[in-house]
């Protein structure tokens, strides 16, 4: 007896849990977003941004270069002086050199900082593009959700229509018994009843199809006992108008182009840095000493590459055109 009571309670709870299951349009939108594979792209975009920022920051670290060379030359430097009793040994025509150089950036014209900003704006563009793609899923959820609500209202209206037709049918049948109406009037009502029943079947079939499609989008089965809560349509329309993701996407693209323009100017600025060279060569710094020796050189280096000025105008025009489009 105790087992029967427990089983009855479990069945009753299941019945009430199924019967009172509810869904809102906001929950459907969130479930569809989480169920869509594209949502995983956000994590990849963020990871890529962090990697690129880390790489850009490494531009401030000292840069080391190791080089070596072996050469043979047809002529070497000679001292055009002859001293009696003194032999001056000339340089070897084969020469060897290995150099380890360290460069430390002091000022790069703002290239590294612009690259970091470009990484952030580029990541934002990708995220906003993702939002645009996901918005189509949200729009699809809205269409299915409101479609289901519309079909349910149509079923209610159809049920009222069938009840009204049944009352009319009974009333016409009474009129026929009293000789007031004829069979044609009764047949006309019967045709309307058949049409109403057929229409109910069509509406119910469409409602079930919409439920199945919405279930596939949100990754959760929507049973017949699940109630879809009617949303505040005015709030939904207002929210959709203000928060269109395309607007944020266009703004992110504009910011990205502005940073590209800033980076373009930074690349054409002079660069200032420190350097230290340590070498082992034959000959060394003392050209008159024809043997292997170690040495070091340190100083400040200023460089300015003017090649970028050849294309800066056309590249800037391309960026300007992209902003217009």
Q: What's the SSE blueprint?
A:
Layout: H1 2-19, E1 22-23, H2 25-35, H3 41-57, E2 63-72, E3 94-107, H4 111-177, H5 183-218, E4 227-228, H6 233-242, H7 245-267, E5 271-282, E6 293-303, H8 312-324
Parallel strand pairs: 1-4
Antiparallel strand pairs: 2-3, 3-5, 5-6
List keywords for this structure.
single chain, alpha+beta, Outer membrane efflux proteins (OEP), four-stranded antiparallel β-sheet, two-stranded parallel sheet, 6 strands
Brief summary of the model shown:
The chain has eight helices and six strands, in the order αβααββααβααββα. The protein is of the alpha+beta class and 325 residues long. The longest helix has 67 residues, at 111-177.
Describe this structure in words.
- 60% of the residues lie in helices and 16% in strands.
- With 325 residues, it is of the alpha+beta class.
- The chain has a single domain, classed as Outer membrane efflux proteins (OEP) (Up-down Bundle), CATH 1.20.1600.
- Helix 4 (111-177) packs antiparallel against helix 5 and helix 7 runs antiparallel to helix 8.
- Mean pLDDT is 84; it is low at 4-19.
């Amino acid at each position: 007896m105790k087992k029967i009571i427990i089983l009855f309670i479990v069945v009753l709870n299941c019945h009430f849990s199924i019967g009172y299951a509810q869904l809102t349009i906001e929950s459907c939108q969130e479930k569809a977003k989480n169920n869509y594979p594209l949502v995983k792209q956000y994590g990849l975009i963020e990871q890529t941004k962090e990697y690129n920022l880390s790489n850009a920051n490494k531009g401030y670290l000292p840069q080391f270069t190791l080089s070596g060379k072996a050469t043979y030359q047809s002529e070497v430097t000679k001292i055009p002086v002859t001293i009696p009793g003194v032999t001056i040994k000339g340089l070897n025509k084969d020469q060897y050199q290995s150099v380890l150089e360290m460069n430390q950036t002091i000022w790069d014209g703002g290239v590294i900082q612009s690259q970091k900003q470009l990484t952030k704006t580029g990541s934002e563009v990708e995220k906003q593009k993702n939002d645009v793609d996901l918005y189509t899923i949200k729009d699809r959820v809205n269409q299915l959700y409101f479609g289901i609500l519309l079909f349910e209202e149509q079923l209610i209206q159809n049920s009222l229509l069938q009840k009204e037709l049944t009352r009319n049918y009974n009333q016409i049948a009474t009129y026929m018994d009293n000789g007031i109406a004829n069979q044609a009037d009764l047949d006309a009502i019967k045709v309307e009843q058949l049409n109403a029943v057929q229409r109910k079947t069509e509406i119910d079939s469409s409602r079930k199809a919409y439920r199945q499609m919405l279930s596939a989008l949100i990754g959760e089965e929507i049973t017949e006992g699940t109630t879809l809560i009617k949303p505040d349509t005015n709030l939904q329309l207002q929210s959709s108008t203000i928060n269109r993701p395309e607007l944020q996407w266009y703004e992110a693209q504009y910011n990205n182009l502005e940073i590209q323009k800033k980076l373009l100017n930074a690349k054409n600025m002079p660069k200032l840095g420190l350097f230290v060279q340590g070498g082992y060569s034959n000959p060394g710094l003392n050209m008159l000493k024809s043997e292997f020796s170690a040495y070091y050189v340190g100083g400040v280096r200023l460089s300015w590459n003017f090649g970028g000025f050849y294309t800066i105008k056309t590249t800037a025009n391309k960026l300007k055109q992209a902003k217009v489009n």
